[in-house]
Amino acid sequence: MTNYSLSSKTKFLTKRNKTLKNTIMGYLEIKDLEISFPTPKGKYIAVKDINLSIKKGEIISIIGHSGCGKSTIMNAIGGMLTPTGGAVQIDNKTIKGSGPDRGIVFQNYSLLPWLSVYENIFQAVDSVMNCSKKEKNEIVEKNLKMVNLFEHKDKLPGQLSGGMKQRVAIARAFAINPGVLLLDEPFGALDALTKGTMQLELLKLWNLNNRDKTIIMITHDIEEALFLSDRIVVLNNGPASTIREIEVVHLPRPRNKIEIVKMPEYIELRDRLLHLLTDKFSIEDMGMVYKN
């Protein structure tokens, strides 16, 4: 009886482990990634031993101190850096360069200043989409309307606010319909109120696309990461940075900014991330004595 039970349990666990393995295998796989650069003093290792499996439709934030290799990892996913070790795969295909299956939004907007809002998006669509001009125009118009900028379509980037420029950049990235959207501190240069609006705009677009886009975002903002992400990847300080921890964000969607900050899960995760990323919380921690 005991032997039968143990045998049955072993078979169950083996079957469960196979199921878990298949579930864990992601749409985007980073396997033993290492990126290094030659310097006059020898090889500089930016990141190493990076392993991460990301599911289709998942939102991942990468967070860490400046210089820890966040952008290096993102550039490897974008195909702008070649790994010196390991590999990055999308849908079981190794990334060997940039491609239309990945859209990128930078902090500095990266709009062409001599083109109108409409033309900036159309140029991207025209270079990627294999369809008629009419269909391309429909794609541009649809994405401009999704970010509430259609009435500003004829303006030049210099005539727009920072938040409006970033909405154009995000609309352009969504317009080419990439499987993966890479966001490199997209809201870092915006004021707090505009940043909050842009976070909601991003989630709105993700939701309108049936949450089919996989989004990977670099941020220094813990609250932003908690509001947007399914998981938060915390990196160690560089050089030779590795993944320190991966925190799962068990907050229900859709998320309400006012409501989630009161949730015990939110408070616990925020405190956890603060302790992972910060070692001083007051001037007394810096050796100063507060004088009344």
List the topology elements.
Layout: H1 2-24, E1 28-39, E2 42-54, E3 59-63, H2 70-78, E4 85-90, E5 93-94, E6 102-105, H3 117-128, H4 133-146, H5 162-175, E7 180-184, H6 192-208, E8 214-219, H7 222-228, E9 231-235, E10 243-248, H8 257-260, H9 264-277
Parallel strand pairs: 3-8, 3-9, 6-7, 7-8
Antiparallel strand pairs: 1-2, 1-4, 4-5, 9-10
Helix pairs in contact: 3-4, 3-5, 4-5, 5-6
Descriptive account of the structure:
With 292 residues, the protein is an alpha/beta fold. The protein contains 9 helices and 10 strands. The chain has helices at residues 2-24, 70-78, 117-128, 133-146, 162-175, 192-208, 222-228, 257-260, 264-277, and strands at residues 28-39, 42-54, 59-63, 85-90, 93-94, 102-105, 180-184, 214-219, 231-235, 243-248. The strands form 2 sheets. Strands 6-7-8-3-9-10 form a 6-stranded mixed sheet, sandwiched between helices. The chain has a 4-stranded antiparallel sheet with strand order 2-1-4-5, with helices on one face. A hairpin with a 7-residue loop joins strand 9 and strand 10. Helix 5 runs parallel beside helix 6. It starts with a helix and ends in a 15-residue tail after the last helix.
Structure described in brief:
With 292 residues, this protein is an alpha/beta fold.
Low-confidence stretches: 1-23
- Beta-strand share of residues: 15-25%
* Largest sheet entry: 6 strands, mixed
First-to-last CA distance: 74 Å
Strand segment tally = 10
Helix coverage percent of residues?
25-40%
* Average pLDDT level: 87
Structural class: alpha/beta
SSE pattern: HEEEHEEEHHHEHEHEEHH
Total helical elements: 9
Q: What gyration radius follows from the Cα positions, in whole Å?
A: 22 Å
Q: Sum up the overall morphology in one term.
A: globular
The largest beta-sheet arranges its strands as: 6-7-8-3-9-10
